[in-house]
Structures are given as C-alpha cells and as structure tokens.
C-alpha cells in the first residue's frame, strides 16, 4: 500500500502577503518590548535592600520576623517575666541553657562583656534553664559563682518553653525588638562577635 509522503509543517505566516507578514512581526516585536519594559519597571520600583519581606508580626513562631510565643516565668527574685515585659521599652534577649552547660557559660560571659562595652542596660536579658532537675537555689548559686549581672532574669522553665520554642539545643538564643518580633536567633556557641551581630539587629552597637 502506498503511503503518502509526510507533509512538511506549515511555516509561520505561510500564505500571507508581504505587508501582512511585516505587520505581524512588528506587532510581535512591540509585544516583547512591552513585556521587557514591564519587567524593568517592576525591578526598579522594588525597594532597595529588601530581598524578602519580613513576616507580619502577627505570625506567632520562632523564625526571624515572627512574633515570639508568649510565656510567663518567675525568676529567682520572684519577678514575673512575660514576652511583653521583657521588651517593655527596650529590646529583649532570651538565652536557653542549663547550669552545667560549659559553652553556654562562656557565651554568657561574652554577653556580659558586650553589655559592659555598650554601657548601661540597653536591652533586657532572660536566661531560661531547661533542666527539670535544677532548682531556684541552683540558679542563685550559678549567678553568684560566675558573677553574672543581678539585673538579668534567671528563671526555670516552668511554662513549657522547650515546646513553645521547639527547643532542640542548649545555647539557643533569641533577640526580640520592642514589639516582641524575633530579629535574630541561632543555637551555636556564642562568642563576642555573635553578640555584636545579634544586638545590631535591634540597633544596639558598641
């Protein structure tokens, strides 16, 4: 049986007059130009320095840009500390540890050094102890032994913050702005430069 030869695909514009083809190509060119111009305008109008939008402060979470989960703790001086009280009038810093965590002790020493260099008390500090075997007396002895500032809050985790903040590591830290929004977090052992970077996110520098 004889098979017909396959037909060649029709070329764009086949059968159109030369003037019609010219108009089609001009129209396509104008269309592509309009697309390019629209992209350029959108790029130019994007605010500089904003590669991504910060999440609304109404989002409760533990990532940068989220509002930190609320809590209610009582420190070793019987002072009640909440998220709003921690950032009342100034930024706040939370640090999760246990009395036996040696890298955490060094990190807090560097935080104290940074605070001295800055001068005054431009931010509040809440040190949260997550070992359920520890007591308020253990925390008092810890503060005295390492001569950490008495102005910091030292509190046992009696509000399930390990779950609220999805805590996986000691040395986890959060810096909150005055709205309670997280501006910095990590879980690595802290050195002096860590605190320089962390507190710079809320406008505090040496």
> What's the CATH architecture of the largest domain?
3-Layer(aba) Sandwich
The geometry reads as: globular
How many structural units, i.e. domains?
2
CATH overall fold name of the largest domain: Glutaredoxin
Please count the helical segments.
6
Mean pLDDT equals 81
**Structural class computed from helices and strand pairing:** alpha/beta
**CA-based gyration radius:** 30 Å
How is the largest sheet built, in terms of strand order? Answer: 5-4-3-6-7
Low-pLDDT residue intervals, each spanning 5 or more residues:
1-13, 23-54
Give the CATH class of the largest domain: Alpha Beta
From the N-terminal CA to the C-terminal CA, the straight-line distance is 91 Å
CATH superfamily of the largest domain, called what?
Answer: Glutaredoxin
Describe, in plain words, how this protein is organized in 3D:
The chain has 206 residues and is α/β, with parallel strands linked by helices. It folds into two domains: 16-51; 72-200, Glutaredoxin (3-Layer(aba) Sandwich), CATH 3.40.30. The chain has six helices and seven strands, in the order H-E-E-H-E-H-E-H-E-H-E-E-H. The chain has helices at 18-45, 83-86, 102-118, 136-145, 161-164, 192-200, and strands at residues 72-74, 80-82, 92-97, 124-129, 153-156, 173-176, 182-186. Strands 5-4-3-6-7 form a five-stranded mixed sheet. The termini are far apart. Residues 1-13 and 23-54 have low confidence and may be disordered.
